[in-house]
Amino acid sequence: MTDADVVAADVVALGGGHGLYATLSAVRRFTSSVTAVVTVADDGGSSGRLRTELGVVPPGDLRMALAALAGTDARSQLWAEVLQHRFGGNGALAGHSVGNLLLAGVAEVLGDTVSALDEVARLLRLEGRVLPMSPIALDIEADVVGLESDPRVSRVIRGQVAVATTPGKVRRVRLLPPDPPAGPEVLAAIERAEMVVLGPGSWFSSVLPHVLVPQLLHALRTTAARKVLVLNLAPEVGETTGFSAERHLHVLSQHAPAFAVDDVLVDSASVPEGSEREHVARAAGLFGATVVYEDVSGPRANVHDADKLGRVLSRLCGQGRPGRDDHMVDISRKERSSWP
């Protein structure tokens, strides 16, 4: 993309992990006014250890978002590399990333996660802002089938890592506590946004949690921003093994039945023309959405290309705000329950 492609638009991107990193890398190509809203339920690796030992909001996904939006000058890129550096060896620091430790330390000094993120953002000369989905650490709880001898029996499992790696089939997820707050900075960013992007990413542990925070879901329903849902290039082993694009949409609708979006962005190679696309269009109708098929895949397997994704999102953003109330398309409950 060129400077001519850059627009003055407020964009909010919601997600976590590598999926959010891809979105932020794309969005920053056409605007510097971007706010990353990041999930805070990670309980594995360095983030899980710091969360347990210090009681902090898990910093790993926040760190990745900071790195994605770091300034392009040499000094900022150096700090982004330092932030992402992970200690080796077998000692107490093994497996920790520098950025996780830095965020945890600054948050402890300042007494506030958002203040710590803003301070580290200044160090990185950030193009945008990074905010936690909620000011408190959350847990994910899931109903999973296929873990017992009787395939109809559901078992409750808890924790993001457990959900992401379960050999069973995840049916539904919840957040604990069940009514967590959303930060006022997050709500304000969504209210003034011209575009909101949800996904791609781990569907049950990085995407769905955003619509499970009541204040956040209300903000998403009432914002005048153009809302774009970006689907994954392929199902993820564990969480969504065997999921079709259509199934991803049904699961989101089941967790947020009154949620609407304007565009569902699907990689053109991931869904062949014909009946499968008809099914996707029908599922997108749950959200009142138009399906947009574009080539957005990169050379690496199952990774979006930042330039391609940025061009599509820039074009959609340039179409302006839709200016309609957030509502579902009127599809009967009986009809929806019969869909696969």
TrEMBL record:
Biased composition (Basic and acidic residues): 322-340
Highest taxon above the source species: Bacteria
Region of interest called Disordered, as start-end residue ranges on this chain: 320-340
Pfam families linked: CofD
Subcellular location: Cytoplasm
InterPro entries, per database record: CofD, CofD-like_dom_sf, Gluconeogen_factor
Gene Ontology annotations of biological process type: regulation of cell shape
GO cellular component: cytoplasm
Main location as per UniProt: cytoplasm
Keywords: Cytoplasm
One GO molecular-function entry: LPPG:FO 2-phospho-L-lactate transferase activity
Signal sequence residues: none
Residue runs in coiled coils: none
Protein family according to the UniProt entry: Belongs to the gluconeogenesis factor family.
Family annotation (PANTHER family): GLUCONEOGENESIS FACTOR-RELATED, UNCHARACTERIZED PROTEIN YVCK-RELATED
NCBIfam families: CofD_related
Biological role: Required for morphogenesis under gluconeogenic growth conditions.
Name used for this protein in its record: Putative gluconeogenesis factor
Species the sequence originates in: Rhodococcoides trifolii
